[in-house]
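Key result, reporting period 2: structure in, sequence out.
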């Protein structure tokens, strides 16, 4: 099962509304994709689906783009990591630094590591022209696809 956080909300309403006969013990993967994974929704899926047989570590998060394909995912068999970052620093500088005690935080779910054979390259937008920004991913074994943004 693969869906964005906004769809998992609808799925959980159906599960909670009809709890009898739902057995998730054979589900091998329950993935979040297509939008930022909401840490509260990840926790709610775990809480609602766990008693219905969902095994720990079944939930994964995938990061992809239409231009580069699948880029990264969390490790199957391990719950996605949730970090708390300093919200003020994130807004001020764009850097996701560890939260400081007593400061507002933003909880974020890890998007994992690059798919096998791929790499993620992150560049500072101001440093390069749009035609020089690119990402790579190993969408299939032995295949590396580079994607450039069109010049503006």
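The corresponding designed sequence is given below.
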């Amino acid at each position: 099962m693969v869906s964005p956080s906004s769809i998992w909300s609808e799925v959980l309403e159906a599960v909670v509304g009809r709890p009898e006969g739902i057995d998730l013990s054979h589900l091998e993967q329950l993935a979040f994709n297509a939008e930022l994974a909401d840490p509260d929704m990840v926790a709610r899926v775990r809480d609602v689906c766990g008693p219905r047989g969902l095994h720990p570590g079944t939930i994964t998060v995938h990061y992809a783009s239409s231009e580069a394909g699948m880029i990264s995912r969390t490790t199957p068999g391990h719950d996605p990591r949730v970090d708390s970052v300093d919200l003020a620093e994130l807004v001020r500088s764009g850097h996701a630094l560890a939260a400081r005690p007593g400061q507002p935080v933003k909880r974020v779910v890890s998007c994992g590591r690059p798919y096998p054979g791929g790499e993620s390259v992150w560049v500072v937008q101001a440093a390069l022209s749009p035609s020089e920004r690119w990402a790579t991913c190993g969408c299939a074994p032995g295949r590396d696809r580079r994607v450039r943004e069109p010049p503006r």
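The radius of gyration is 18 Å. The first helix runs from residue 5 to 17. This case is discussed further under Risks and Mitigation.
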